[in-house]
């Protein structure tokens, strides 16, 4: 097999700057609003900022989409200033609030930095330059959406995925919070959509996830256990499932990002440590609404990840408070919530209404379209007996395309998680309970249980096990952190050196997990980026894109296969391609007909060619094979294809003239079809 000529570019210094820009865009706007709302605890400020930042960009995208103006960086900054001002106006001057102790905060911060550096190094070795595109077809869709935001300035969530990138119609809902962020990075760092999207992918795992875990630990664990959040960040950075697996197996970047955003969002939604008056609660409502809208705009599954986590923690807290009151014989035993908690619930209700007003329409569109309905997708793992299901959930095998037999367990992380479960005690009970509930749901999926509530979870996860199990992952990593801080406390007997010992043990966990899985994780990334196992885009596709950009006349369209690298002709050169999905959708009936019958130039094809001014065809003969669903098998007449039937062997089709060749990629002129149905000599001459 001939090695793929990987498309890349840029420099190490330029990539570093792009990563800094990506980090600033996901931290600064949200941190500004949270600061104005009175948030002063550093872990919560940094961990909660990413979801709020995406919520701010969603507000800007919705306003510009509704008014027909352009989505751009200055609009997002303006929205951040307005929303921060609103939060300050409503909430007034914030009261001073105590922060976490310096020792645990430093230990947690050092471990977060170590986790971020580890993730950055994994991506550097696996992806190479940020300009290296992924060969995974779902990631191609993400890149197309990002590129269209850049080229048109249209980032409205309700029409995020324009099936026709030139006209914008038909369009459908697609969770585009990640793409909004990637477009902002590309705009301000002056890089292309590929580099912008890759930069956000790195920062999601290296920074958003790690800071969110630190914030969650700060909220649900005792203050002296804050280092557990840093250990959790370390565990997450070396875990293949779920986030790196989503890069490898299906390009499910928005779903992966939603998992990473969830810990910080949960920490924001849970009642703060300080007792806020009504005005203080109302001052945080805008930030809470933005965080909810931002997380859901990244991916709708965030509603389950965040909502399930918040509900689980709060149920445990209420149960503990009620039992404690009953033991003391308190008159408050029958009261489920205190006045403080009641105020917070009222604020959450207002925030939920605001978030629903912002993203509710888009979510209804997703639900009406079938979203991730399990009726549309087969299970990714066959039903298993209970012992096998428990083994899979508890031993954290790599699984997926890198480990189809699930024989490569991540024992270092798995043992740390189980140790944390054993050592959790009352102080970490919320973490243990939430992890147990989500793990029980994962087992239920594996053994094939069905039911109304369960089907909702399966549907939201695209009927995929690793997406179902992903809901539990933040809590699993926190349990690993609990194990480390409990051991550190035992070794130091609660003395001042406990944070230092926790940091050292966390570093040991990082080293052990790295030895066990890091080489495989780098290989998984390289198989999609630096040394791809199959090819959709390479230097030949890029050369064809440059050629088409030089010859396509205004108004002309280019027929292509969405299953190869031709979509990058639009991403990198702005070429007006027709096919933007691996298989043309029912909402593009003309493109489906061309994909099936173009080479035959039937009367129907001729009419489409005239109407759309289809002047060129570009085909990569080495595209990977693609199985078809039954409806598409019936339409195309084949069980699957690498190249659509209508684009096969155009050299032998009458009237088509090859005008460009680079490796396996060719460009042909489409025969000119006059009004009376006769064929000319080629419209591009």
TrEMBL record:
Keywords: Membrane, Transmembrane, Transmembrane helix. It comes from the Bacteria. The chain crosses the membrane at residues 16-37, 44-65, 71-91, 193-216, 225-245, 251-269, 304-323, 344-367, 408-424, 431-448, 468-488, 500-518. Signal peptide: none annotated. InterPro entries: DUF6541 (IPR046671). This is DUF6541 family protein. The lineage of its organism: Bacteria, Bacillati, Actinomycetota, Actinomycetes, Kineosporiales.
């Amino acid at each position: 097999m001939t090695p793929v000529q990987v498309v890349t570019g840029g420099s190490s210094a330029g990539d570093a700057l792009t990563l800094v820009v990506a980090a600033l865009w996901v931290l600064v706007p949200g941190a500004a609003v949270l600061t104005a709302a009175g948030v002063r605890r550093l872990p919560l400020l940094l961990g909660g900022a990413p979801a709020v930042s995406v919520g701010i960009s969603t507000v800007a995208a919705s306003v510009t989409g509704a008014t027909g103006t352009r989505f751009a960086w200055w609009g997002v900054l303006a929205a951040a200033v307005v929303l921060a001002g609103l939060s300050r106006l409503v909430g007034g001057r914030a009261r001073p609030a105590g922060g976490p102790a310096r020792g645990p905060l430093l230990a947690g911060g050092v471990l977060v930095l170590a986790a971020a550096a580890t993730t950055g190094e994994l991506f550097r070795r696996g992806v190479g330059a940020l300009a290296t595109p992924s060969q995974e077809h779902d990631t191609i869709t993400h890149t197309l959406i990002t590129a269209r935001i850049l080229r048109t300035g249209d980032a409205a969530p309700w029409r995020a995925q324009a099936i026709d990138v030139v006209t914008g119609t038909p369009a459908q809902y697609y969770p585009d919070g990640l793409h909004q962020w990637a477009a902002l990075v590309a705009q301000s760092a002056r890089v292309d959509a590929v580099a912008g999207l890759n930069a956000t992918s790195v920062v999601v795992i290296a920074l958003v996830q790690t800071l969110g875990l630190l914030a969650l630990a700060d909220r649900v664990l005792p203050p002296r256990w804050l280092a557990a959040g840093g250990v959790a960040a370390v565990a997450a950075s070396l875990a293949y499932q779920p986030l790196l697996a989503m890069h490898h197996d299906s390009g499910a970047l928005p779903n992966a990002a939603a998992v990473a955003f969830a810990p910080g969002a949960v920490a924001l939604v849970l009642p703060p440590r300080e007792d806020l008056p009504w005005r203080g609660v109302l001052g945080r409502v805008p930030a809470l609404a933005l965080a909810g809208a931002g997380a859901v705009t990244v991916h709708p599954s965030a509603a389950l990840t965040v909502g399930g986590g918040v509900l689980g923690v709060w149920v445990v807290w209420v149960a503990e408070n009620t039992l404690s009151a009953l033991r003391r014989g308190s008159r408050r035993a029958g009261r489920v919530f205190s006045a403080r908690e009641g105020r917070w619930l009222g604020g959450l209700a207002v925030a939920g209404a605001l978030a629903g007003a912002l993203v509710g329409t888009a979510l209804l569109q997703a639900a009406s379209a079938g979203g991730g309905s399990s009726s549309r997708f087969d299970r990714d793992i066959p039903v298993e007996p209970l012992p096998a299901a428990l083994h899979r959930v508890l031993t954290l095998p790599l699984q997926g395309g890198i480990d189809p037999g699930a024989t490569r367990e991540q024992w270092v992380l798995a043992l740390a998680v189980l140790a944390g479960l054993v050592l959790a005690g009352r102080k970490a009970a919320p973490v243990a309970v939430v992890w147990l509930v989500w793990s029980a749901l994962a087992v239920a999926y594996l053994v094939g249980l069905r039911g109304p509530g369960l089907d909702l979870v399966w549907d939201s996860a695209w009927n995929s096990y690793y997406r179902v199990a992903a809901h539990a992952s933040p809590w699993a990593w926190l349990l690993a952190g609990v194990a480390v801080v409990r051991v550190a406390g035992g070794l130091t007997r609660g003395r001042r050196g406990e944070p230092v010992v926790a940091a050292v043990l966390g570093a040991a966990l990082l080293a052990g997990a790295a030895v066990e899985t890091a080489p495989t994780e780098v290989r998984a990334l390289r198989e999609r980026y630096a040394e791809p196992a199959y090819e959709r885009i390479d230097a030949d596709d890029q050369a064809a894109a440059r050629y088409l950009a030089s010859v396509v006349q205004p108004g002309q369209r280019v027929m292509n296969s969405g299953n190869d690298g031709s979509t990058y002709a639009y991403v990198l050169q702005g070429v007006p391609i027709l096919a933007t999905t691996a298989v043309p959708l029912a909402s593009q009936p003309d493109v489906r007909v061309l994909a099936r019958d173009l080479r035959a130039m039937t009367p129907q094809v001729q009419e489409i060619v005239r109407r759309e001014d289809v002047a060129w065809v570009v085909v990569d003969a080495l595209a990977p094979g693609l199985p078809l669903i039954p409806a598409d098998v019936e339409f195309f007449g084949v069980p699957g294809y690498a190249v659509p039937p209508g684009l096969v062997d155009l050299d032998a089709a009458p009237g088509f003239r090859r005008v460009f060749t680079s490796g396996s990629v060719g460009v042909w002129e489409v025969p000119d079809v006059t009004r009376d149905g006769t064929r000319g000599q080629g419209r591009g001459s």
